[in-house]
C-alpha cells in the first residue's frame, strides 16, 4: 500500500519544480512542438503516433498554466502566448486532417475538417470577445478539453472502422465540426442573454 505524501514532501517537490530553470513559456513551446509533430505524422497517415504526439502536446498545454500558477513565473505575455499557441496547435492538426482527406480526393470530409478548424477558432474568439466586454464567455459544451479528447480518439483510432465504411477519424471530425458550430451559437446566445438582462436591470 502506498503511503500518502505529506504536506512537507509536497512542498519540497513544489519547491524543486520552482527551482528548475524552466519557464511556463518553454512548456507552451514544447506543446507547440508536440502538435507540429502530430500534424506531420497525421499527414503521413501514421495515426497512432500522431495521436500520441497530439496527446503529449495537449498535456503540455495543460501543464503550462498550472506550472505558471504554482511557480509564480507566469507573465501577462505568457498567458497571451499560451492562448495563442493553443489556437495555432489545434489549427495545425486539423489542417493536416484536411490535407489527408484532400490527398484521397475526399472533398466532403476535407470541407468538414476545414469547418471544424474554423469553428474551433470561433469558439475561442467568442469567449475572448465576451470577456473583453466584461461578460461571461464560457458557456457551451464544446470546450477545448472536450475537443482535445474527441480529436485524440479520432487520431489514435484513425485506422479503425466505427461501422462498415466509416473510419473513426472522419467520425471525430464530423463531431468536432458540429460541436464547434453549436458551441459558437451557444456562446452568442449566452452573450445576448447577458446583455438583455443588463438592459432590463439598468
Overview of the structural elements:
- It comes from Patulibacter brassicae.
- This is CDP-alcohol phosphatidyltransferase family protein.
- With 202 residues, the protein is mainly alpha-helical.
- A hairpin with a 2-residue loop joins strand 1 (161-163) and strand 2.
- It starts with 6 loop residues before the first helix and ends with a helix.
- The chain has helices at 7-19, 24-43, 47-71, 76-103, 107-132, 144-156, 168-201; strands at 161-163, 166-167.
- The chain has seven helices and two strands, in the order ααααααββα.
- The longest helix is centred in the last third of the chain and has 34 residues, at 168-201.
- It has a two-stranded antiparallel sheet with strand order 1-2.
- It has a single domain, classed as Four Helix Bundle (Hemerythrin (Met), subunit A), CATH 1.20.120.1760.
- Helix 6 (144-156) runs antiparallel to helix 7 (168-201).
- The model is unreliable at 1-9 (pLDDT under 50).
- The chain is flat and about 55 Å long.
Amino acid at each position: 500500500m502506498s503511503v500518502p505524501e505529506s504536506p512537507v514532501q509536497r512542498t519540497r517537490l513544489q519547491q524543486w519544480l520552482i527551482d528548475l530553470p524552466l519557464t511556463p513559456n518553454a512548456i507552451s513551446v514544447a506543446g507547440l512542438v508536440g502538435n507540429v509533430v502530430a500534424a506531420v505524422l497525421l499527414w503521413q497517415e501514421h495515426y497512432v503516433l500522431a495521436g500520441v504526439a497530439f496527446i503529449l502536446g495537449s498535456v503540455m498545454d495543460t501543464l503550462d498554466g498550472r506550472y505558471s500558477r504554482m511557480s509564480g513565473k507566469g507573465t501577462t505575455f505568457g498567458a497571451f502566448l499560451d492562448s495563442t499557441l493553443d489556437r495555432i496547435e489545434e489549427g495545425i492538426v486539423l489542417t493536416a486532417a484536411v490535407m489527408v482527406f484532400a490527398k484521397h480526393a475526399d472533398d466532403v470530409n476535407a470541407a468538414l475538417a476545414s469547418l471544424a478548424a474554423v469553428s474551433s477558432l470561433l469558439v475561442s474568439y467568442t469567449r475572448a470577445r465576451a470577456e473583453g466586454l466584461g461578460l461571461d464567455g464560457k458557456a457551451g459544451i464544446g470546450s477545448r478539453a472536450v475537443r482535445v479528447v474527441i480529436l485524440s480518439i479520432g487520431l489514435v483510432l484513425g485506422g479503425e472502422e466505427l461501422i462498415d465504411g466509416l473510419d473513426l477519424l472522419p467520425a471525430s471530425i464530423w463531431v468536432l465540426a458540429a460541436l464547434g458550430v453549436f458551441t459558437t451559437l451557444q456562446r452568442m446566445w449566452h452573450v445576448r442573454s447577458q446583455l438583455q438582462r443588463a438592459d432590463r436591470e439598468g
